[in-house]
Amino acid sequence: MPELAISAEKVRFLIEKTREFDVKEGATDPDSGSNAADDKMVDVLEDNGDDPVVHEITGFITAMTEDEQIDLVALMRLGRGDGTIEEWDELRREAADGRNNRTAAYLLGEPLVSDYLAEGLDAFGLTWTDERTTPV
Fold it and tell me: How distant, in Å, are the alpha carbons of 80, 120, 125 from that of 132?
């Protein structure tokens, strides 16, 4: 079994954060002038382009080492079905070849990234639960 350069805890944290991002939707009431309590706080689910979750995810990924970022992309691709655990070295090599310092944007552009990361962890025999996770 290959080894990951990124800790499972970091991946679990990203799964949690990307699931927070996944529930966002486009602005449905861009001219809302009412107070948040009147709207039942639904505006919090709108993606207005200045999302603190996106900033948190981007900062977290940017602070990772190059090897961690490569493994993160390869793990997403593994979970997406682009290869098998036996093809990990090839998935990792492709991720390294495509590396362009836009890892966070690339991953956030993948609609099911949280599911793919969870599936990738599963291929390594690691699991993800709905418990709050803190990165190590």
Answer: 24, 19, 20
Count of C-beta atoms within a 10 Å radius of residue 106: 18
- The more confident residue out of 110 and 36 is 110
pLDDT of 15 above 90 = yes
CA 27 to chain centre: 22
- In this prediction, residue 36 carries a pLDDT of 57
Question: φ and ψ at 40, to 5 degrees?
Answer: 60, 30
Q: State the Cα–Cα distance between residues 38 and 67, nearest whole angstrom.
A: 47
The total of other beta-carbon atoms located within 10 Å of residue 37's CB is: 7
